[in-house]
Amino acid sequence: MSRAHDLLPIPDRSEPEEPMPGMELTERHHAGLDMHERLIPGPDGQPDVRVLVYRPKATTGRLPILLHFHGGAFCYLHPDTFAGMEANWSLGHKCVVVSVDYRLAPEDPFPAGPEDCYAALEWVASHADELEIDLDRLVLTGGSAGGALTAAVCLMARDREGPKIAYQSLMIPVTDDRLETPSIRQAIDSPGFDAAGTEGMWLHYLGEDYDREKTSAYAAPARAESFEDLPPAFIQTNGLDPLRDEGIEYALKLLAAGVPVELYNCPGAYHGAPPLDDRTASLAFRVYNAALGAALTPDAPTSGF
């Protein structure tokens, strides 16, 4: 077994993917949403990409669009894992949600994930009429590894002169493969996702023989040479998370480049484990949700749903 598997075991892929507890689709979701899956063109020469599409029923005209990249250390989970959350976004913010089932490491290491996600961005932009969406309100979001993919796709869109992204919302994001921050050292035995898991994640995602002196910014967004001309951002970090400091440092890099950033650190919260403080965790959820709502529908009253 490789060192990566010792640090972060990979689950049996033959097991069916189930929603996380509390993320199941409900009768309310089925009654209020049109939901379907699509296979869209993948990167050149690569397989098609599966996406889930949510749209509120009985809506007319062009709606805002939220493109979601799920978390899971680049190795775990699928859009179905977060179905209830994505359905809540679509209902609560009256937007179309497209969730991307990108390829997972270690079977498909970098750059498969971000290239699949970028292909989904291009598909959304080229199918705006069919989806009845307003590309002026195109928002990207993701948590953990999904935060890395969100930041990476924003960099790719800038560098490739691709679709214009209105806003990026990064929840407890992965941004840096160098693992040199105080929060990494403080999370040796953290519940949920700890320092060893973080190291294993990068070994799976990049490959154990990857030249880390030349890590691509599309893998680790903190490696970018420039942070200018990127979309405004919301970034949340958790106080007891090994990824805390790299998320904060990424926010500072964006701010130094003149990018508007809203930064919130949730004290008493781990990465992948229940928080110690329900009050701050509840506040973090409301702040994140409000940031999404303000980006998707700037003139609407904020909904916490």
Give the topology, please.
Blueprint: H1 3-7, H2 27-32, E1 33-40, E2 49-56, E3 63-69, H3 83-93, E4 96-101, H4 112-126, H5 128-131, E5 133-143, H6 145-159, E6 167-171, H7 182-186, H8 195-206, E7 233-238, H9 244-256, E8 261-266, H10 278-296
Parallel strand pairs: 3-4, 3-5, 5-6, 6-7, 7-8
Antiparallel strand pairs: 1-2, 2-4
Detailed description of the structure:
By secondary structure, this protein is of the alpha/beta class. It has one domain: 3-Layer(aba) Sandwich (Rossmann fold). It has ten helices and eight strands. The protein has helices at 3-7, 27-32, 83-93, 112-126, 128-131, 145-159, 182-186, 195-206, 244-256, 278-296; strands spanning 33-40, 49-56, 63-69, 96-101, 133-143, 167-171, 233-238, 261-266. It has an eight-stranded mixed β-sheet, sandwiched between helices. α6 (145-159) links the parallel β5 and β6 (167-171). α4 packs across α6 (145-159). It is globular. The N and C termini lie far apart (45 Å). The model has no long low-confidence stretch (mean pLDDT 94).
